[in-house]
Amino acid sequence: MKISSISGGVTAPAGFQAACCAAGIKYKGRVDMAMLCSAEPCAVAGVFTSNVVKAAPVVWDRNIVQNVKRAQAVVVNAGIANAATGPAGMATCEQTAAHAAKALGIPAQYVLLGSTGVIGPVLPMDRIAAGIDAMAGALSDTAEAGTAASRAIMTTDTVNKECAVRFELPAANGAGTVTVTLGGMSKGSGMIHPNMCTMLAYLTTDCAIDQALMQRAVEDVVKDTFNMISVDGDTSTNDTLLVLANGRAGNAPICEEGEGYAQFREALFTVCRTLAIKMAGDGEGATRLMEMRVYNMDTKENARKLARSVIASSLVKAMVFGRDANCGRILCAMGYAGVDFDPAVIELYLLGREQTLCFYRDGCVQAFDEDAALAILSEKEVRFGCDMRMGDQEATAWGCDLTYDYVKINGDYRS
Amino acid sequence: MKISSISGGVTAPAGFQAACCAAGIKYKGRVDMAMLCSAEPCAVAGVFTSNVVKAAPVVWDRNIVQNVKRAQAVVVNAGIANAATGPAGMATCEQTAAHAAKALGIPAQYVLLGSTGVIGPVLPMDRIAAGIDAMAGALSDTAEAGTAASRAIMTTDTVNKECAVRFELPAANGAGTVTVTLGGMSKGSGMIHPNMCTMLAYLTTDCAIDQALMQRAVEDVVKDTFNMISVDGDTSTNDTLLVLANGRAGNAPICEEGEGYAQFREALFTVCRTLAIKMAGDGEGATRLMEMRVYNMDTKENARKLARSVIASSLVKAMVFGRDANCGRILCAMGYAGVDFDPAVIELYLLGREQTLCFYRDGCVQAFDEDAALAILSEKEVRFGCDMRMGDQEATAWGCDLTYDYVKINGDYRS
Fold it and tell me: A56 to chain B, minimum CA–CA distance in Å?
């Protein structure tokens, strides 16, 4: 099974165009709207926030994924979340979709929506409509158009996030194989503690695949990708992951779980994992990516819980910022993860690029070389590992350090 | 039922003495050990951390509470947590208790222990022993001795925490009533997200009460006091709440749930609530106390979950620090509390000392007077309220703002 990383993002697969514009929704002088459009209707899969309070576009998109099951375009804005906006928020969804449908010549129920930003305000429909008109006339399948779209959906993100992969599948006409491409973009910097999904992530593929099977793959893959990152423990009202598949690659449609499905799932996993790690490393105020690997655990779900608990701990996050090897905090965070284990048998490690330090074993914090620990904690990506010695299951979670800038950004985000 | 607040702490009840000393365990030139001693054996009740990783003194104390059920003294040190210390940690517990028992002329199994500080290091037994000897000769029942003990157990706390109350109970000899006193002290500034209990809290009373009944009262009262505060979401390995009752007041012993028990429970609630709020307001780096009241909820437990979720949210905490009325974050934090509710019917309020602002109603963030909101958010104690409109149950949780200083303190705590 060979998955190759390639450059590009949402426009890498055949038949997808993107555009963006500065609609003036909240930010001055920057692009703040993006549009994706497929040359033909796509199978669509998606997962959404588990927050009881769901933003209007989440309600809108969920209906399309669950009932319409097909889509052709996505319209996204940054600056205003369209959350806690009541009936007015749903009305702007309907109007936005209707306007985009008209501009693109497609059914309104094929238009997916996404919003990110401040909770509360209602979207300015006139600017949204003008933005849609501008973007509909500027759609392009170039890599630059995809990259520009990934920038347009940023809020407090410091870098845009996109990636794409290629793999081979048997051709629909039986003559050898065809190349299938899967690309994606995402944003997310604060309010990141996805549960069922992440902030905003849009994936496109030219793969031909059954909608229900793609939905299964998405629900499976998010468990070890977007659901394994945390910036601040806050699960947003707007978390959305959507995957659109238009079938343009010409592969024999994937209609059952077999080798083709496994290939697709692996490609999906690669793109989701790459985007998730980029989001964790670009958490608000973050200076470093933090990774926690839990292995030899009894069940996968318990391994996930332990890894997530560590990367979400404020004390561990502050410790990584301060490069202080106060490793008892990691043990403590595992202890309140809601998972049973014997502290006397597990072993904890600092996993450096060039060396591994054991700092906890036999129920005791171990003496270790402080200089070596400082060197590992000073790496751009800080990795911790825990051998649970309880089985053969593993999980990895990603987060970031807690910094002065996180407080600064979030002490005054609205203004 | 009349509970009067009085000055003092652990030495306010009859028959309790306290002492402290600078044992040089970690901090230089400050008191870092405390001792409490009762003139006679006490009934003892307690609750401890739910963290799977339990510090050695937690294991030691839990055995006394569950099996011995009586105690006469408490020895506490700050600077080193005696957690993740394995068999060596338990050995220091045995040695500490034995040494204190000899110095005080009581059984070793009547000596409770407490430690707070860095996880990992083993306690220096020679300094602990010398500290015990010094304190055993300096025990005093003055208010000053109690206050000094409450200072000795501080780590990153900026103020000591103590309080005491008085109430009347029928006399044991049938002649009218006697005055019963309940006092306490606590410490806790970081790693504060108690679950079953809080960091370290020691309460003393001269009430005569059945041990099992007192244990019931403690387990009941923590749910709405220590378990309703959070500084950073991290449940410590050392959380301990102990209550010692020596019966010196001469009341008719409380042996069943009746009016006397209700009085005692109310006094216990008052002391625990006061200490818990002091801890929340003195969270690491905190500049302001934050309070979240959830009312008209279907069940008490759901009300607690909602209130806790809001005060534990990093985004809400940063918002309070920044005095920014980004109130959608409160709604968002309620949404991921794991409790079902209808966002369209609840109402959210900013509860100022002099005015109340509704900022969310009918599913929408409301327009509000920004100057008035800023004034409320600038108060020393910031209060939020939510009318769930689902029933008649309520709960309140307390936390603090997230500041630059939290990051500073925890980026470099060990050194």
Answer: 11
